[in-house]
Amino acid sequence: MQQWNWLTKVSKKQLYYSLTAIVTALCIIGGMVWNAHRQTKVVAEDITAVQTTVIGAAAAAQEYTYSGEVRGRYESQLAFQVSGKIIKRNVELGSVINASDVLMQIDPKDIQQTVNSTSAQVSSAESQLRLAENNLNRFRQLYEDGAVGRMTYEQNVSAYEVAAAAVQQASAQHSQGANQLDYSLLRTDKPGVVSAIKAEVGQVVSAGQPVLTIVQDGEREVEISVPENRIEELRKAQQLKVTFWALSNVILDGKVREIAPMADPVTRTYKVRISLLNPPPEMKLGMTAAVTLLDSETQPTATIPLAAIYQNGDTPCVWVVTDNTVALRPIKTGKFGNGTIQVVAGLQQGDRIVTAGVHKLTAGQNVKLGGDSL
């Protein structure tokens, strides 16, 4: 009876607040229990099964192959020494030429007129010289007889010397014109093969403009293009092997003869000339060749799937599994294969790496080994 009286004394407002506090407390406790259960579930789900393989290193020699083409060691860019219109071409691409052969000709009409003019000047100067010589002989006799003074005699001596110099000048101009007439014929002083024609009949060319390219008879080389990060390796290479696409049974030894001092402005690679030792006669200009660089020093290498590579900026890396935890490790790669890539540094024999799903992992993440790929 007393308890009932006490309840009646409690106001409705106090009863409402009490019930609200009890419900709030129950909700907080329930939320904490649910959150703990959910975190436990998330942690359990974060353990990802991954596909891995164990590294088995093998000693192998590094080799790099560069494609190129057969070129002549000496290539000449031929040009006319005078300007004019081409009226004749006596060669075609691939034509074999001998020394002093006439390859092209420029219209010589204007040059011929210059030669005719200088020839007339030579005749005029020679006539003036003869006149001066006759006058000098007469005045020398008169001077010796005392009929004329010394000044008059010396004037005739000077006139003779001027006439003689005029003859020399006219003769030099005539010789220059004759040379230009000969320059209207384009000749070569070395035997070889025509590898390029850059001007045609009817075209007006200027002096010094290349019109033909001649590969001289003699040594043959292979020209390749090498990126800048491989120049030093090529310079220090112990062995070079040269093969040809059209000559499957021919393998030649090569030697670096020349490395361009500057990179090509378009390809940003360096031109390298490889001398060939004892080339066969069936090797022709322009043939496709492959130059393989062999390193005499062997080093441990491993071949892994391309899918195992994780690119971290400019550095290739792989995920290494240690105690079911992944860590990112940088590596140095070598040559590519069929869906594989060679690793020359960064991995040890017995390392376990992830081979699939590498872009879904984070450093320090726990994983479950799902089996080897090999």
From TrEMBL:
The keyword Glycoprotein does not apply. Residues 115-142 form a coiled coil. Residues 303-368 form the YknX-like C-terminal permuted SH3-like domain. Keywords: Coiled coil, Membrane, Transmembrane, Transmembrane helix. Residues 80-215 form the Multidrug resistance protein MdtA-like barrel-sandwich hybrid domain. The chain crosses the membrane at residues 15-34. InterPro entries: Beta-barrel_RND_2, MdtA-like_BSH, RND_pump_MFP, YknX-like_C. Residues 222-294 form the CusB-like beta-barrel domain. The keyword Transmembrane helix applies. It holds the Pfam family YknX_C. Belongs to the membrane fusion protein (MFP) (TC 8.A.1) family. This is Multidrug resistance protein MdtA. It comes from Sporomusa acidovorans (strain ATCC 49682 / DSM 3132 / Mol).
